[in-house]
Amino acid sequence: MSGELRAISTNRHEAFLPSPSVQNHAAFLSWQPDGSLACAWFGGTLEGKSDICIHLCLLGKDATTWGKTTRIEGDANRSEQNPVLFQSPKGGLLLFHTSQPDGNQDQSKVRVRTLDVAPANPGQIIAHPARDLPLQPGTFIRAPIIVRKDGAWLLPLFLCNARPGYRWNGSFDTAALAISTDHGQTWSQTDIPGSEGAVHMTIVPLDDGRMVAFYRRRQADFVFRSDSNDDGRTWSPPAATDIPNNNSSIAAIRLSDGRIALLCNPVSAAMSRDRRNSLYDELDVADSRPDAQDGCKPVWGVPRAPLTLCVSDDGGHTFPKRKIVEDGPGTCLSNNSLDGENKELSYPALTEGPDGSLHLAFTYHRRAIKYIRLAPGWLDGDPQ
Protein backbone atom coordinates (compact mmCIF):
# COMPACT_ATOMS: atom_id res chain seq x y z
CA MET A 1 0.00 0.00 0.00
CA SER A 2 1.70 3.15 -1.21
CA GLY A 3 -0.50 5.76 0.45
CA GLU A 4 -1.10 7.47 -2.88
CA LEU A 5 -4.40 9.34 -3.27
CA ARG A 6 -6.60 8.10 -6.11
CA ALA A 7 -9.39 10.11 -7.69
CA ILE A 8 -12.55 7.98 -7.58
CA SER A 9 -14.68 10.85 -8.86
CA THR A 10 -14.48 14.62 -8.99
CA ASN A 11 -15.80 14.70 -5.42
CA ARG A 12 -13.91 11.79 -3.87
CA HIS A 13 -10.26 10.84 -3.38
CA GLU A 14 -9.06 7.88 -1.33
CA ALA A 15 -5.95 6.02 -0.22
CA PHE A 16 -4.88 3.06 1.90
CA LEU A 17 -2.33 4.19 4.46
CA PRO A 18 1.03 2.39 4.35
CA SER A 19 1.57 0.05 7.28
CA PRO A 20 4.05 -2.71 8.18
CA SER A 21 1.41 -4.52 10.27
CA VAL A 22 -1.07 -7.25 9.42
CA GLN A 23 -3.81 -5.77 11.61
CA ASN A 24 -4.65 -2.04 11.58
CA HIS A 25 -7.49 -0.51 13.57
CA ALA A 26 -8.91 2.58 15.34
CA ALA A 27 -7.86 5.56 13.22
CA PHE A 28 -7.64 9.12 14.58
CA LEU A 29 -7.19 12.27 12.47
CA SER A 30 -5.64 15.58 13.57
CA TRP A 31 -4.79 18.77 11.67
CA GLN A 32 -1.28 20.11 12.27
CA PRO A 33 -0.20 23.78 12.42
CA ASP A 34 1.55 23.55 9.03
CA GLY A 35 -1.66 22.37 7.32
CA SER A 36 -0.69 18.70 7.18
CA LEU A 37 -3.07 15.98 8.36
CA ALA A 38 -1.87 13.36 10.85
CA CYS A 39 -3.42 9.92 11.16
CA ALA A 40 -2.73 7.61 14.10
CA TRP A 41 -3.99 4.08 14.67
CA PHE A 42 -2.90 0.85 16.32
CA GLY A 43 -1.34 -2.08 14.51
CA GLY A 44 0.26 -5.48 15.05
CA THR A 45 -0.92 -9.06 14.68
CA LEU A 46 -4.12 -9.12 16.77
CA GLU A 47 -5.94 -6.70 19.07
CA GLY A 48 -4.97 -7.46 22.66
CA LYS A 49 -1.56 -8.97 21.86
CA SER A 50 1.56 -7.31 23.20
CA ASP A 51 2.91 -6.53 19.72
CA ILE A 52 0.06 -4.06 19.17
CA CYS A 53 1.39 -0.50 19.23
CA ILE A 54 0.64 2.95 17.85
CA HIS A 55 1.37 3.87 14.22
CA LEU A 56 1.34 7.37 12.76
CA CYS A 57 1.85 9.03 9.38
CA LEU A 58 1.31 12.43 7.77
CA LEU A 59 -0.33 13.77 4.63
CA GLY A 60 1.47 17.01 3.84
CA LYS A 61 -0.42 20.11 2.83
CA ASP A 62 -1.34 19.77 -0.86
CA ALA A 63 0.43 16.38 -0.97
CA THR A 64 -0.94 13.53 -3.05
CA THR A 65 0.68 10.69 -1.09
CA TRP A 66 0.73 9.85 2.61
CA GLY A 67 4.22 9.78 4.08
CA LYS A 68 6.13 6.91 5.62
CA THR A 69 4.49 5.33 8.66
CA THR A 70 6.27 5.55 12.02
CA ARG A 71 5.78 2.64 14.42
CA ILE A 72 5.96 4.06 17.93
CA GLU A 73 7.62 1.51 20.18
CA GLY A 74 5.96 1.16 23.55
CA ASP A 75 5.47 -1.35 26.37
CA ALA A 76 6.51 -4.81 25.16
CA ASN A 77 4.20 -6.46 27.72
CA ARG A 78 1.02 -4.56 26.90
CA SER A 79 -1.33 -3.99 24.00
CA GLU A 80 -1.26 -0.25 23.20
CA GLN A 81 -4.47 0.91 21.55
CA ASN A 82 -6.90 3.78 20.79
CA PRO A 83 -4.59 6.70 19.98
CA VAL A 84 -5.84 10.27 20.51
CA LEU A 85 -3.78 13.13 19.06
CA PHE A 86 -4.03 16.56 20.65
CA GLN A 87 -2.43 19.82 19.56
CA SER A 88 -1.72 21.56 22.85
CA PRO A 89 -2.71 25.25 22.98
CA LYS A 90 0.75 25.86 24.46
CA GLY A 91 2.33 24.23 21.42
CA GLY A 92 3.37 20.67 20.72
CA LEU A 93 1.64 17.51 19.59
CA LEU A 94 0.58 15.06 22.30
CA LEU A 95 -0.29 11.40 21.83
CA PHE A 96 -2.63 9.81 24.35
CA HIS A 97 -3.36 6.08 24.15
CA THR A 98 -4.45 3.07 26.19
CA SER A 99 -2.21 0.25 27.42
CA GLN A 100 -3.53 -3.09 28.67
CA PRO A 101 -2.36 -6.66 29.37
CA ASP A 102 -3.97 -9.10 26.90
CA GLY A 103 -7.76 -8.61 26.70
CA ASN A 104 -8.05 -7.23 30.22
CA GLN A 105 -9.47 -3.80 29.53
CA ASP A 106 -10.26 -3.41 33.23
CA GLN A 107 -6.48 -3.19 33.81
CA SER A 108 -5.86 -0.54 31.17
CA LYS A 109 -3.79 2.57 31.77
CA VAL A 110 -3.89 5.81 29.77
CA ARG A 111 -0.49 7.07 28.68
CA VAL A 112 0.66 10.34 27.09
CA ARG A 113 3.82 11.34 25.25
CA THR A 114 5.05 14.29 23.22
CA LEU A 115 5.64 13.85 19.50
CA ASP A 116 7.94 15.89 17.27
CA VAL A 117 8.18 16.02 13.51
CA ALA A 118 11.90 15.77 12.74
CA PRO A 119 12.91 19.17 11.26
CA ALA A 120 15.62 17.66 9.04
CA ASN A 121 13.27 14.99 7.67
CA PRO A 122 9.69 16.23 7.38
CA GLY A 123 7.20 13.43 7.92
CA GLN A 124 9.43 11.53 10.34
CA ILE A 125 7.97 11.34 13.84
CA ILE A 126 10.06 11.39 17.00
CA ALA A 127 8.26 10.01 20.08
CA HIS A 128 9.40 11.05 23.56
CA PRO A 129 9.01 8.77 26.61
CA ALA A 130 5.47 8.14 27.83
CA ARG A 131 4.00 8.74 31.26
CA ASP A 132 0.86 7.35 32.84
CA LEU A 133 -2.06 9.64 33.58
CA PRO A 134 -3.26 9.49 37.22
CA LEU A 135 -6.55 7.78 36.36
CA GLN A 136 -8.16 4.66 37.80
CA PRO A 137 -7.24 1.25 36.33
CA GLY A 138 -9.54 0.25 33.50
CA THR A 139 -9.75 3.75 32.00
CA PHE A 140 -10.06 3.88 28.21
CA ILE A 141 -10.14 6.71 25.67
CA ARG A 142 -11.12 7.06 22.03
CA ALA A 143 -12.56 10.54 21.27
CA PRO A 144 -10.89 13.96 20.81
CA ILE A 145 -9.98 16.27 23.66
CA ILE A 146 -12.08 19.45 23.79
CA VAL A 147 -10.67 22.76 25.08
CA ARG A 148 -13.23 24.65 27.17
CA LYS A 149 -13.61 28.44 27.00
CA ASP A 150 -11.65 28.83 30.24
CA GLY A 151 -8.77 26.77 28.79
CA ALA A 152 -9.55 23.51 30.59
CA TRP A 153 -8.93 20.26 28.70
CA LEU A 154 -11.86 17.83 28.57
CA LEU A 155 -10.78 14.24 27.87
CA PRO A 156 -13.73 11.82 27.37
CA LEU A 157 -13.27 8.49 29.17
CA PHE A 158 -14.98 5.18 29.38
CA LEU A 159 -14.43 3.11 32.48
CA CYS A 160 -14.03 -0.65 32.14
CA ASN A 161 -15.02 -1.19 35.75
CA ALA A 162 -13.49 -4.32 37.26
CA ARG A 163 -15.42 -7.10 38.97
CA PRO A 164 -12.99 -9.03 41.23
CA GLY A 165 -12.78 -12.68 40.23
CA TYR A 166 -14.47 -12.09 36.86
CA ARG A 167 -13.16 -11.43 33.38
CA TRP A 168 -13.97 -8.10 31.72
CA ASN A 169 -16.64 -8.29 29.02
CA GLY A 170 -18.06 -4.75 28.97
CA SER A 171 -20.99 -5.45 31.28
CA PHE A 172 -20.21 -2.64 33.72
CA ASP A 173 -18.66 -0.01 31.46
CA THR A 174 -19.64 3.61 32.12
CA ALA A 175 -18.71 7.06 30.78
CA ALA A 176 -16.77 9.83 32.48
CA LEU A 177 -14.83 13.00 31.72
CA ALA A 178 -11.28 13.81 32.83
CA ILE A 179 -10.67 17.54 33.26
CA SER A 180 -7.31 19.30 33.47
CA THR A 181 -6.95 23.00 34.28
CA ASP A 182 -3.12 22.96 34.22
CA HIS A 183 -2.34 21.77 30.69
CA GLY A 184 -2.47 18.08 31.49
CA GLN A 185 -0.38 17.99 34.65
CA THR A 186 -3.24 16.99 36.95
CA TRP A 187 -6.73 15.66 36.27
CA SER A 188 -10.09 15.50 38.02
CA GLN A 189 -12.93 13.20 37.00
CA THR A 190 -16.64 13.77 36.42
CA ASP A 191 -18.83 10.69 35.99
CA ILE A 192 -21.70 10.80 33.51
CA PRO A 193 -24.95 9.87 35.31
CA GLY A 194 -26.98 6.93 34.02
CA SER A 195 -24.27 5.93 31.53
CA GLU A 196 -24.16 2.16 32.01
CA GLY A 197 -23.14 0.69 28.65
CA ALA A 198 -22.56 4.14 27.08
CA VAL A 199 -18.93 4.42 25.92
CA HIS A 200 -16.76 6.36 23.43
CA MET A 201 -18.24 9.66 24.63
CA THR A 202 -17.66 12.16 21.80
CA ILE A 203 -18.22 15.83 22.65
CA VAL A 204 -19.46 18.42 20.15
CA PRO A 205 -19.40 22.04 21.42
CA LEU A 206 -22.40 24.16 20.40
CA ASP A 207 -23.08 27.81 21.35
CA ASP A 208 -23.59 29.73 24.59
CA GLY A 209 -21.83 27.20 26.81
CA ARG A 210 -23.82 24.26 25.47
CA MET A 211 -22.27 20.94 24.54
CA VAL A 212 -23.71 17.69 23.29
CA ALA A 213 -22.10 14.25 23.54
CA PHE A 214 -22.73 11.06 21.58
CA TYR A 215 -22.06 7.51 22.73
CA ARG A 216 -21.47 4.01 21.39
CA ARG A 217 -23.60 1.46 23.23
CA ARG A 218 -22.51 -1.92 24.58
CA GLN A 219 -26.13 -3.08 24.18
CA ALA A 220 -25.93 -2.53 20.40
CA ASP A 221 -29.24 -0.67 20.25
CA PHE A 222 -28.85 3.05 19.41
CA VAL A 223 -26.34 5.86 19.46
CA PHE A 224 -27.08 7.72 22.69
CA ARG A 225 -26.85 11.45 23.39
CA SER A 226 -26.49 13.72 26.44
CA ASP A 227 -26.41 17.50 27.02
CA SER A 228 -24.41 19.98 29.04
CA ASN A 229 -25.50 23.59 29.51
CA ASP A 230 -22.48 24.67 31.57
CA ASP A 231 -19.47 24.03 29.35
CA GLY A 232 -19.17 20.37 30.22
CA ARG A 233 -19.24 20.67 34.01
CA THR A 234 -22.46 18.65 34.37
CA TRP A 235 -24.27 16.33 31.96
CA SER A 236 -27.72 14.86 31.51
CA PRO A 237 -28.09 11.05 31.48
CA PRO A 238 -27.58 9.65 27.97
CA ALA A 239 -30.76 8.95 25.97
CA ALA A 240 -31.33 7.21 22.64
CA THR A 241 -31.16 9.03 19.31
CA ASP A 242 -32.76 7.77 16.08
CA ILE A 243 -29.44 6.27 14.87
CA PRO A 244 -28.95 2.50 15.42
CA ASN A 245 -25.63 1.37 16.92
CA ASN A 246 -23.84 -1.98 16.70
CA ASN A 247 -21.55 -1.64 19.73
CA SER A 248 -18.88 -0.10 17.52
CA SER A 249 -17.20 3.27 17.49
CA ILE A 250 -18.63 6.55 16.22
CA ALA A 251 -17.24 9.96 15.22
CA ALA A 252 -19.08 13.28 15.49
CA ILE A 253 -18.18 16.88 14.62
CA ARG A 254 -19.89 20.23 14.17
CA LEU A 255 -19.64 21.38 10.59
CA SER A 256 -18.77 24.96 9.65
CA ASP A 257 -22.41 25.53 8.65
CA GLY A 258 -23.57 24.61 12.18
CA ARG A 259 -24.92 21.15 11.44
CA ILE A 260 -23.69 18.03 13.25
CA ALA A 261 -22.20 15.18 11.24
CA LEU A 262 -22.11 11.71 12.77
CA LEU A 263 -20.09 8.94 11.08
CA CYS A 264 -21.03 5.42 12.13
CA ASN A 265 -22.47 2.02 11.21
CA PRO A 266 -26.26 2.53 11.63
CA VAL A 267 -26.96 -1.15 12.42
CA SER A 268 -28.29 -2.61 15.67
CA ALA A 269 -28.60 -6.03 17.30
CA ALA A 270 -32.29 -6.00 16.35
CA MET A 271 -31.25 -5.87 12.67
CA SER A 272 -28.88 -8.87 12.67
CA ARG A 273 -28.52 -12.30 14.25
CA ASP A 274 -24.71 -12.25 14.04
CA ARG A 275 -23.09 -12.75 17.46
CA ARG A 276 -19.72 -13.57 18.96
CA ASN A 277 -18.87 -14.30 22.58
CA SER A 278 -16.63 -11.34 23.30
CA LEU A 279 -14.24 -8.82 21.82
CA TYR A 280 -11.20 -11.05 22.38
CA ASP A 281 -12.36 -14.50 21.26
CA GLU A 282 -9.19 -15.13 19.23
CA LEU A 283 -6.69 -14.42 22.02
CA ASP A 284 -5.04 -17.66 23.10
CA VAL A 285 -4.53 -16.70 26.74
CA ALA A 286 -5.24 -19.02 29.65
CA ASP A 287 -7.85 -17.43 31.91
CA SER A 288 -10.12 -19.58 34.05
CA ARG A 289 -12.21 -16.70 35.37
CA PRO A 290 -15.86 -16.58 34.31
CA ASP A 291 -17.22 -13.57 32.43
CA ALA A 292 -18.65 -10.75 34.52
CA GLN A 293 -22.30 -11.36 35.32
CA ASP A 294 -25.34 -9.06 35.33
CA GLY A 295 -24.63 -5.51 34.23
CA CYS A 296 -25.81 -4.23 30.86
CA LYS A 297 -25.54 -7.43 28.72
CA PRO A 298 -23.15 -6.38 25.93
CA VAL A 299 -23.75 -7.62 22.40
CA TRP A 300 -20.75 -8.42 20.17
CA GLY A 301 -20.59 -9.40 16.50
CA VAL A 302 -23.26 -7.20 14.90
CA PRO A 303 -22.05 -6.28 11.36
CA ARG A 304 -19.88 -3.16 11.07
CA ALA A 305 -21.13 -1.77 7.75
CA PRO A 306 -22.26 0.31 5.97
CA LEU A 307 -20.19 3.33 6.96
CA THR A 308 -22.68 6.19 6.85
CA LEU A 309 -22.58 9.96 7.33
CA CYS A 310 -25.65 11.08 9.27
CA VAL A 311 -26.46 14.81 9.46
CA SER A 312 -28.50 16.74 12.01
CA ASP A 313 -29.71 20.34 11.83
CA ASP A 314 -31.40 20.31 15.27
CA GLY A 315 -28.37 19.93 17.56
CA GLY A 316 -28.14 16.17 17.26
CA HIS A 317 -31.68 15.26 18.28
CA THR A 318 -32.53 13.74 14.90
CA PHE A 319 -30.48 12.76 11.85
CA PRO A 320 -32.79 12.73 8.82
CA LYS A 321 -30.02 12.98 6.19
CA ARG A 322 -27.93 9.82 5.82
CA LYS A 323 -25.43 9.07 3.04
CA ILE A 324 -23.42 5.87 2.71
CA VAL A 325 -19.70 6.49 2.31
CA GLU A 326 -18.57 2.85 2.02
CA ASP A 327 -20.53 -0.40 1.98
CA GLY A 328 -19.84 -4.12 2.31
CA PRO A 329 -20.83 -7.18 4.34
CA GLY A 330 -19.44 -5.73 7.59
CA THR A 331 -18.79 -9.21 8.99
CA CYS A 332 -16.91 -9.02 12.30
CA LEU A 333 -17.37 -12.46 13.86
CA SER A 334 -13.57 -12.72 14.03
CA ASN A 335 -10.80 -10.16 14.59
CA ASN A 336 -8.35 -12.31 12.62
CA SER A 337 -6.67 -10.29 9.87
CA LEU A 338 -5.25 -13.30 8.01
CA ASP A 339 -8.17 -15.57 7.10
CA GLY A 340 -10.12 -12.96 5.11
CA GLU A 341 -13.32 -13.49 7.09
CA ASN A 342 -13.43 -10.01 8.62
CA LYS A 343 -15.16 -7.46 6.36
CA GLU A 344 -15.79 -4.60 8.80
CA LEU A 345 -15.74 -0.90 7.86
CA SER A 346 -15.50 0.57 11.31
CA TYR A 347 -13.97 2.83 13.94
CA PRO A 348 -14.14 6.03 11.90
CA ALA A 349 -12.38 9.34 12.36
CA LEU A 350 -13.90 12.50 10.88
CA THR A 351 -12.69 16.07 10.46
CA GLU A 352 -13.52 19.06 8.27
CA GLY A 353 -10.89 20.88 6.24
CA PRO A 354 -10.52 24.67 6.02
CA ASP A 355 -12.23 24.59 2.61
CA GLY A 356 -15.23 22.59 3.85
CA SER A 357 -13.96 19.22 2.56
CA LEU A 358 -14.58 16.19 4.76
CA HIS A 359 -11.72 13.87 5.71
CA LEU A 360 -12.43 10.33 6.94
CA ALA A 361 -10.28 7.42 8.05
CA PHE A 362 -11.53 4.00 9.14
CA THR A 363 -10.72 0.32 9.62
CA TYR A 364 -10.91 -1.64 6.38
CA HIS A 365 -11.38 -5.39 7.02
CA ARG A 366 -8.95 -5.24 9.99
CA ARG A 367 -6.18 -5.18 7.37
CA ALA A 368 -5.71 -1.50 6.62
CA ILE A 369 -6.67 2.07 7.42
CA LYS A 370 -8.55 3.66 4.53
CA TYR A 371 -8.62 7.43 4.04
CA ILE A 372 -11.28 9.29 2.05
CA ARG A 373 -11.50 12.97 1.18
CA LEU A 374 -14.93 14.25 0.14
CA ALA A 375 -15.13 17.58 -1.68
CA PRO A 376 -17.15 20.52 -0.28
CA GLY A 377 -20.80 20.00 -1.07
CA TRP A 378 -20.62 16.20 -1.22
CA LEU A 379 -23.07 15.83 1.64
CA ASP A 380 -25.78 17.79 -0.14
CA GLY A 381 -25.04 16.73 -3.71
CA ASP A 382 -25.65 13.58 -5.70
CA PRO A 383 -23.91 10.41 -4.41
CA GLN A 384 -20.52 9.93 -6.11
Automatic annotation (TrEMBL):
Q: Name one GO molecular function term.
A: hydrolase activity
- SUPFAM superfamilies, per database record: Sialidases (SSF50939)
The alphabetized UniProt keywords are:
Hydrolase
Is Iron given among the entry's keywords? no
Q: Which Gene3D superfamilies match?
A: 2.120.10.10
Asked if Hydrolase is a keyword of the record, the answer is yes
Q: Where is the Sialidase domain?
A: 35-360
| Domain of life according to the entry | Bacteria
Q: What is the protein name given in its UniProt record?
A: Glycosyl hydrolase
Please report the organism this UniProt entry assigns to the protein. Answer: Thalassospira profundimaris
